[in-house]
UniProtKB/TrEMBL annotation:
Record-linked InterPro entries: Ald_DH/histidinol_DH, Ald_DH_C, Ald_DH_N, Aldehyde_DH_dom, ALDH-related_metabolic_enz
CDD domains (UniProt xref): ALDH_y4uC
Lineage of source species: Bacteria, Bacillati, Bacillota, Bacilli, Bacillales
Keywords of this entry: Oxidoreductase
Full protein name: Aldehyde dehydrogenase family protein
Family of the protein in this entry: Belongs to the aldehyde dehydrogenase family.
Domain Aldehyde dehydrogenase, residue spans: 16-473
Pfam families reported in the protein's UniProt record: Aldedh (PF00171)
Length: 478
């Protein structure tokens, strides 16, 4: 079984490195120790950067057809070993085995997309003769790799979010150093195995395991790092932005996603979509539904049906094929969610269902009558909790949806195209899903937000744009 030999090693500059000091990786379901991974030191990060300084030259000189071949072979490897990848995701994280299998499929797709887009990194001719006196000048621009990329990834999609950074980086001829979440490092190490098996040259990729507090600053501030790609919380993102210096930043920093249900919406479709969007992946999802605004005429029926569907959700063993929802990533996180819910209840919120914690498990929870300034209404809960609000019309719904300092994605349910376009124009978000919840994404679309939700866009082709720069070439023909 993969990872047996390398379970105590990290992938540093293309070589598997073991350390005496380790980090324990736990299964959040029962807190059992799965394995250990090295606890990287400052010297290890500097070694990874030194390797990447050579790796970026190797990657930049790699012909496009080789990049395509390597990425596709890595995708083949993941596909061939998909059961082990899914088991690893499910064991080290919060996802059920069914959700984990879905993430493996997405990872394969992300890699295939990266291989395809490698052949489409193109430039354009420039009409220099548009200016009088420049008639004898011609030229064009092309895109070149930015250099060494530092990628910091979260625990909630431990495989596909690594693929979203590594695939485009290799496709565009860069070297990349990945620092996966300490809670879920195994999936990223498995992806390193896939690229090693695919024949990726040494020094192009590192997957370094360790504490962000101890190695993060070096990784984001080092002058050789030309771009930091970070997915995580807004507070950490702000700290990185202040420390990083003059380098490119791409950040996806979470959200507090709204869904709007208008009076003409198909209630059953809206309920089904929003329940799945709120409680999938235990609500530990940056585009998960957190606030739902329902027009008055539909409110009571929507609430009744939503609570009924929520109560059907089965919480339990992640490995059980019939389980809908497993534990949060840790008992600590479950306690935090519990505290936020209790705060809202103390401020006169109404608990419609859920609100119970058992170790790291927290039941799917629905609240009503939550104060607009409650922490659970203004911050990202990142747990299985959804808030229901009654509104008079779309204008009120949009106004309330925009009140938070997040803007990643939103959903609206309506049959009226004019109202849909009003929401499209006025909601302060990076993506609008019409007749779907906010929790909809394919890996080829531009993905990102506004306000506190981040900078730049992910999605393979858009990540490649972020990871390359245009270079202008001009000829004076005399």
């Amino acid at each position: 079984m993969m990872l047996t030999e390398k379970r105590k090693k990290m992938f540093l500059g293309g070589r598997w490195v073991e350390k005496d000091e380790v980090i324990h990786v736990y299964d959040p379901q029962d807190n059992a120790i799965i394995t250990t991974v090295p606890k990287a030191s400052e010297a290890d990060i500097l070694a990874a950067i030194e390797a990447a300084e050579e790796g970026v030259k190797i990657a930049g000189n790699m012909p496009v057809h080789e990049r395509i071949s390597i990425i596709n072979k890595a995708a083949d490897y993941v596909e061939e070993h998909r059961a082990i990848f899914a088991e690893t995701i499910a064991r080290e994280g919060s996802k059920t085995i069914t959700e984990a299998r879905g993430e493996v499929v997405r990872c394969i797709n992300t890699l295939r997309l990266s291989a395809e887009e490698a052949r489409r990194i193109i430039g354009e001719t420039i009409s220099f003769d548009q200016m009088p006196g420049h008639e004898n000048r011609v030229g064009y621009y092309y895109r070149f790799p930015i250099g060494i990329i530092a990628a910091i990834t979260p625990f909630n999609d431990p495989l596909n979010l690594v693929a979203h950074k590594v695939g485009p980086a290799i496709a565009s001829g860069n070297a990349i150093i990945v620092k996966p979440a300490s809670l879920t490092p195994l999936s990223g190490l498995l992806l390193a195995e896939a690229f090693e098996a695919a024949g990726l040259p040494e020094k192009v990729l590192s997957v370094v395991t360790g504490s962000g507090r101890e190695i993060g600053d070096i990784l984001v501030t080092h002058p050789s790092i030309r771009m930091v790609s970070f997915t995580g919380g807004m507070e950490t993102g702000e700290k990185i932005a202040k420390k990083a210096g003059l380098k490119k930043l791409s950040m996806e920093l979470g959200s507090n996603s709204p869904a709007i249900v208008l009076q003409d919406a198909n209630i059953d479709d809206a309920v089904s979509s929003c329940v799945a969007g709120a409680f999938g992946a235990v609500g530990q999802n940056c585009i998960g539904v957190q606030r739902i605004f329902i027009e008055t005429s539909q409110f009571n029926e929507f609430v009744r049906k939503f609570v009924k569907e929520t109560k059907k959700y089965k919480t339990g063993n992640k490995k059980d094929e019939t389980t809908d929802m497993g534990p949060l990533i840790s008992k600590r996180e479950a306690i935090r969610v519990e505290e936020w819910v209790n705060e809202a209840l103390e401020e006169n919120a109404i608990l419609l269902t859920g609100g119970k914690r058992d170790d790291a498990f927290y039941t799917p929870t629905v609240l009503m009558n939550v104060a607009a300034d409650a922490r659970i209404a203004t911050e990202e809960i990142f747990g299985p909790v959804v808030l229901l609000f009654e509104v008079e019309n779309l204008t009120e719904a949009i106004e309330k949806a925009n009140q938070v300092n997040y803007g990643l994605q939103a959903g609206i349910f309506t049959k009226d195209i004019n109202l849909a376009f009003q929401a499209i124009q006025q909601l302060e978000v990076g993506g609008i899903m019409v007749n779907d919840s906010s929790d909809y994404r394919i890996d080829s679309m531009p993905f990102g937000g506004v306000k506190g939700s981040g900078l730049g866009r992910e999605g393979v082709i858009y990540t490649i744009q972020e990871m390359t720069e245009p270079k202008v070439v001009h000829f004076n023909l005399g």
